[in-house]
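ARCHIVE CARD
Drawer: 12
Card no.: 0347
Subject: one protein chain, sequence and derived structure
Cross-reference: see card 0346
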Amino acid sequence: MSKRELIKRLMNGENTERTGFWLGNPHPETWPVLHAYFNTSTEEELRQKLNDDIRWICPQFYDDVYQDPQGREMFDAGLDREKHAKPPLANCSTLAELEAFTWPNPEYLNFDTCIRDLNNAGDVYRLSGFWCCFFHNVSDLFGMENYS
């Protein structure tokens, strides 16, 4: 049974010959510790050594997914942990102010690299799609004080 089939069966509540394993998304500072302990040098090498059944392949992990001609990030004016202290829409009180915000343009999205990696991930179960932390996004844009 492939790793992909194993995870599908587990999610369906079916019996399997073993449990599934997912390393998850370790904090960046953890990778060197893991590599030193397991004698690996890449994330994929470590996942293979641990028999990881899942890969988290999401567009936001790719630098080329949002290709704004002016070089802006998808939410350049906000939605950044470093900018929490200055929410760009905290004092917004009119529709015109909201419409004037530089919203991401879906025409600048390019999923080619992410789709390539999804297609080439092998027999593992793939988790993908944009992380939709919309509650965090609202807080980043409007400020926690205006979050109710």
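Annotation on reverse: The longest helix spans residues 3-11. The mean pLDDT is 89.
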